Amino acid sequence: MRHGGGRRAFFSTQTPSSPASELGDLLLAAALSKSFSRSPPAAPALDGPLHEAAALHVLRRPSLPAASKLSFFRWATSSGGYSPSPAAFSALLRSLTRSRPPLLDPLRPLLRQALSSSPAAVDPPTFRSVLDAFIRSGRFDSAIAALDDAEELAGSRAAAGLLTPRTYTSIVLALLQKSQLPLALVLLRKLLRASALPDTLACNQLLAALRKADRRDEFRSLFDELSQKGFLFDTWTYNICIHAFGSWGQLGVALRLFKEMKSKGPRVVPDLCTYNSVVGALCVAGKIADALIVYKEIKESGLEPEKFMYHTLIYGCCKAFRVDEAVRVFNEMEYNNVRADTVVYNTLLDGLMKVRKLDKACQLFERMVSDGIRASCCSYNILIDGLFKNGRQAAGFVLFTELKKKGQFVDAITYSIVVQHLCKEGRVVEALELVKETEERGLAVDLVTITSVLIGLHKSGRWDSSEQLLKYVRDTAMLPNVLGWKANMDSLMKAPQDKGKDYTAMFPSAGSLSDIMSWINPSPSTDTADANSDAESKDEWSLTPYLDKLADKCDSFGTNSRLLTDFRGLRVQEKRGGSFDIDMVNTYLSIFLAKGKLSVACKLFEIFTTLGREPMSYTYNSLLSSFVKKGYLADAWGILQDMGDKNCPADIATYNLIVQGLGKMGKAELACAVLDQLSSKGGYLDIVMYNTLIHALGRAGRLDEANKLFEQMVGSGINPDVVTFNTLIEVHAKAGKVKEAYKFLRKMLAAGCSPNHVTDTTLDFLEMEIERLRYQKASIKRDRDEVDGE
């Protein structure tokens, strides 16, 4: 250092002799660090250019705060004579990202400065640390902007070094951890467009996230893009895709992937997760028999099924009303020391309630409690709903009341269930009081509850529904939307309509309901899979030969037949976004049709479809039911064709109405063919479908077939209800088979099925038929006596 006249310099940058060079840099760095660690920092004056080594010592000093390093860097670059090296930029960028909290605002300007100064100014690890800092702090737009800066400023060669697949992979994984799925998808596609294959881990996690979010179009698009780019799927990738396509009902795609997976061994080998996904795909598609055979093969192969497979099979069997099979799988599950949880018990409990096996359901619930499995709100909701639906309304209400007193296991769904059943019984005032109590307990009144009360009020002749709802429902945000929708509907219904469609059919049709088979299979194709199955190469060491045969026929599980959904349509689809309008349309269709106002219901349907609202299966089924009941079968056929034109999937209720219509036409044989098609497509027969077909066969005089169907119903594990017995008693009595009618009456009483007013009417007819037969027999005997006397 020097002292004296002239310009004074605080620190000297004269190059010392070579042995003392490093020591001089260290001393200068220490002095600079001390100066910039003060608050405010004191900017020194140098007598020459700053050495790079001294600057690096300052920027790499752990004790100096990141903000002080940034101040030093700005001073050094602005004072002239210092040009930062790539090492200096990297040291400062890393220091800013590692600061607690990280200094994010200067990161991007500094990054742009580094990239502009030299294409190699930022190395890939430093660049990734900058991106990670932005993502950890939720500055996703800054992270994307940094990627754009690298492409813009670094040049193609340097950008290729920075924007490596590893960089994209780390960013995609970080974005997925932050639930930024759309951004992660954009980045991965950007990498694919650059003809670079991403890391397997990033692809798998992104595919899994898309499946979990139910983003089917994006999933299929990414899957196709990866396949076209030659991406090597591993076992995890195949498992994700098989599970996704299978859970979305695309069984053919799932089986094709399984077949492809087996052909790529030993690099890719199916594991237990693969078989779980395939069994799940079969259950979703309604192929319960096939799923049970594959399950048997898996057990015999030495693999031990786990809880996921057991639950999938139990759920599939219960959904298809094969509850006896579900109970068998449940017992095997417990025998193999796989502990059932609350979800498994709830699934089986719900299945037993659906097939009217109330006693077994109650026994299962007691077993659940005794085994130490904690019952949930869902468990009690299933019990209460099952008691109401199985004719034990008093028991259901008592259980609900006891749970309220205990202050546990009662949620908004519990109240909604009881409100719905009270409204069905015409006890609307009690239902409204329960709605009020729901809000008083701090529970939300949902759209299902509000619309149930609306229907109940209209059925009881209370057209002041708005005033009643405002009186009892006050805190919910849903009610203003409902009342506003009703006001708009009233104005639309009263507004003058377009007369251009006058005297034209609302549901134009070609042909008649007799052409139903062409509607079910609009483009039938000859299935050559069976013919060629023997020619397929067979793996003699395969663990699952039956599943391999199914996979060989994957193309036969196509989309030639009419879409069939596995779930009965619901009036309100609360979990589906944007369904409020059609939910309200479904509600008021139910109100108008219950009052016999078919023309008003059709007008409502026409108005909202004209406004672009997409009807659901429940919407079509509501209209279809009224047309079939009134005998307007040509219009019913038109509804089915409109449903097909709009690609609205049919459900089990749709097929039930088709069978009803064919029964009214006397086409019992065609009705049986429809049910065969339903079964082949993975559909199932519930108690309503059995009752409908028994009635159709009985009306056609095919009593033997009706009796066989009854035995099939009982054999499948479904307990007959009062409608079943009333139908069988009626058709046998009208056919003059009094003994058989009495046999079914005795079975009805033995099953504990309480008669209703229809039973009384049927028994009156049966009594008249017996008197007629007695009179006929007495007349025949008298005639014989007269002949013998002559």
From TrEMBL:
PANTHER family: OS03G0856100 PROTEIN (PTHR47447), PENTACOTRIPEPTIDE-REPEAT REGION OF PRORP DOMAIN-CONTAINING PROTEIN (PTHR47447:SF28). PPR repeats lie at residues 234-268, 271-305, 306-340, 341-375, 376-410, 411-445, 446-480, 616-650, 651-685, 686-720, 721-755. Residues 1-20 are annotated as: Disordered. The keyword Chaperone does not apply. Keywords: Repeat. Pfam families: PPR, PPR_1, PPR_2. It comes from the Eukaryota. Belongs to the PPR family. P subfamily. The keyword Zinc does not apply. SUPFAM superfamilies: HCP-like (SSF81901). This is Pentacotripeptide-repeat region of PRORP domain-containing protein.
